[in-house]
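tool_call: predict_structure(chain=1)
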Amino acid sequence: MSKRNEIRPVTGTQISRKMLSFKIVLLGEYSVGKSSLVNRLVKDQFNKIPSTIGAAYCTFTIQINNTPVKLEIWDTAGQERFHGLVPMYYRHAQAAIVVYDVTNRVTFEKAKKWIKELQNQVPSTLTMLVGNKLDLNICRSVEFDELQKFADENNLLFMETSAKHSVNVTDVFKTIARKLSKIETANADDGRSQHLLVGSENDDKRNCCM
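tool_result:
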């Protein structure tokens, strides 16, 4: 397992704010560009990257509504021989990005299998379908309308990207971070409400027995 450099572009005035942290796993067939997407996000580079063995890990911190959000990103290998290892990476992930190549329909069919596996094994995981290599759109083999329909029917976030030309790459991760932050805030608010409710009930019990 390789480890990429951590990048935390957070200023001193922001450190005092509570940092949220989420685990994100990238899934998809070999050569669809998962590592290229991560490399573009973290280093703003596009170059030839060695095949991932097992999984590669890095972190990236962005700002969502003035709150620092740390993304713990696991880029999994797409080769079939590593398939059995992947569940240990997505099992405790808050979000999954399932990537396919817009010029290769087979990779989309594989992506659908990954999504079905996620829905069966970790149904609460936020999932985004990402079609990469949009720079080769002239050679695409799956039409956008079909992809959007599939995403809607399966309650998926959906976006098309080009790691090569840096199209929508940051937006993919920002969208996920924003969604997860909303869920985290809602859960925290629910927890506080439950705490206040329990406190009120205890007060009532104490008052009635005085």
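agent: Confidence is low (pLDDT under 50) at residues 5-16, 205-210. Proceeding to next step.
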